[in-house]
Please model this.
Amino acid sequence: MVKGAFKRLVEVGRVVFINYGDDTGKLAVIVDIIDHNRALVDGPTTGVARHSHPFKRLTLTDHVIEKFPRGAGSSIVKKFFENQKILNKWHNTAWAKKLDNRKKRAALTDFDRFKLLKLKKQRRYILQKEVAVLKKAKA
Model:
């Protein structure tokens, strides 16, 4: 493997996050590289049909499926995806957690946002009180 400035290379077996189109927000695997602009992706466990997708509408993740055969069929993709527990690894990343938090915040009602505001105020009040006590003890 070539060492360089790039950490995520386009390669067969690379897990990608689709950031535009019908499958936005889903994971898929690069099955084959068509040309310098497009790749054949497949995600049988995540609901992504096998299709050609442009690189500019994909985001490469840190996950790579080891020893993944080029041009593998959907059943093989599913087997590798499940054996290496890619979805579990993805859900444990900070990126996936941040996306999940965004969804939760977008789903809040007006009253939920108000309750959140009150809770943040309470937390801030408690912290400021403790900081004041520590400053007083230090001086």
